[in-house]
Write a structure and sequence with these properties.
Blueprint (H helix, E strand, L loop, with lengths): L11 H8 L14 H7 E8 L5 E3 H11 L9 E11 L2 E10 L2 E12 L2 E11 L4
Parallel strand pairs: 1-6
Antiparallel strand pairs: 1-2, 3-4, 4-5, 5-6
Amino acid sequence: MEPTRITEIRLMAVQDELSAREPIFHRPEHGTTRAAFELMTDAEFWEVGASGRRYSRAHVLDILEERYGQSIEENWETQDFFCQEVAPDTYLLTYTLLQGSRTTRRATLWRRTTGEWKIVYHQGTVVESP
């Protein structure tokens, strides 16, 4: 039932770079300020949350600014990365995120512009228990 998902050898370096940035907005080494998050995201960024709701870039930035105004501790695990090139310098990275008892499938659309990675789109979907 599951698709075969094996990243092409030529994309392994891209997958390594991008997987080091996931889960997005939860890697303090890439920044924890609104300005840093603005630099990470494309001007047209938007996301679909696990609830199915759509969120604008401005809304996500507001939430992140509020979240990082407090101390947070997260113990999350990423696995099962897969990277596809969908257009020149544009890549879809998918993976599984384990958040304690909650498991989600994640998809992030990344674009490399002038040597910098920008997040164009992100989605998280909760995995239902069998």
